[in-house]
Amino acid sequence: MKESIQDTAVLIFANSASRDAIAKNMLAKAALFDAMTLQTLKVVKATGLPYFHFTENEQQGWTFGQRFANAVQSVYAKGYQNIITIGNDSPQLKTWHIKKAFYELQQGKTVLGPALDGGFYLMGMNRSHFDAFSFSKLPWQRYGLRAATEKMFIGLGNAIFRLPILQDLDREADIVLLSHHVNSIAGNLIKLLKSFVKRTRQAFHAPVPILERINVGPNHNKGSPILLFH
Predict the structure, then answer these.
(1) Which of these, 29, 25, 73, 35, lies nearest to 52 by C-alpha position?
(2) How confident is the model over 165-179, as pLDDT tens digits?
C-alpha cells in the first residue's frame, strides 16, 4: 500500500455538526454528528492515506452536485490520481473499507460502497474517469443515484467494484435500523445513538419503519435520497 499511497487521497465531504443537525432535522443532536465526524477522522487516519475535509466553509457551488464536483476537482488539482470520497454519516464505516477501496483503485477499478437508501457511502475513482460537468448532473439527493452513477462509470468503460452495503444515518428513524447492527458500530457511537432517542427501549425494539422515497430535500452528505418515515 505504501508504494502508491501518495497517488490517492481521501475526501471527506461532510458539513459541520451544527449544519448537519439542521439539515437532517435533528436540532438537538449536533453532538452526535460531531462524534460521527471524529469517528470518521479516526477511521481515515488509520489508513495512512492523505485526506481533506470539506465542510460548508470549503464547498463552492449552488447545487449539491456542483459543490461535490468542485471539491473533487480541487483535490485532483493537488496532484492526486485517485480519490476516495466519503461522508461522516456512516457509523458502520471501517478502516478496511477504505483500504479495500484503495486496493481496487490500484487494480484500475472504480469503487462504490452502496448505502441502503439507494445512494452510496463511498466512491473511489481515478482522475481519468472524472468529468466535473457529468458528475454534477447526476441525480444527487434522488433515489436511484447509485444506479445512475454506476451507469455513468460503466459507460466510460470502467469495471465497478462494490463494497458491502451499509446504513447511513439521515433521520432519527435510521437509528432504529442501525440498532440491528450494533456489533458493527463503535461503542462510543452506540451510546450516543441510544441517548438521542426518546424512550430508548421502545425505539430500539420498534418495527422497522416504512420508507417513502421523494425527490427533493436538504443537503445530505453524498446526496443521500430524502426519506419520509411512517
Answers:
(1) 73
(2) 987 776 665 555 555
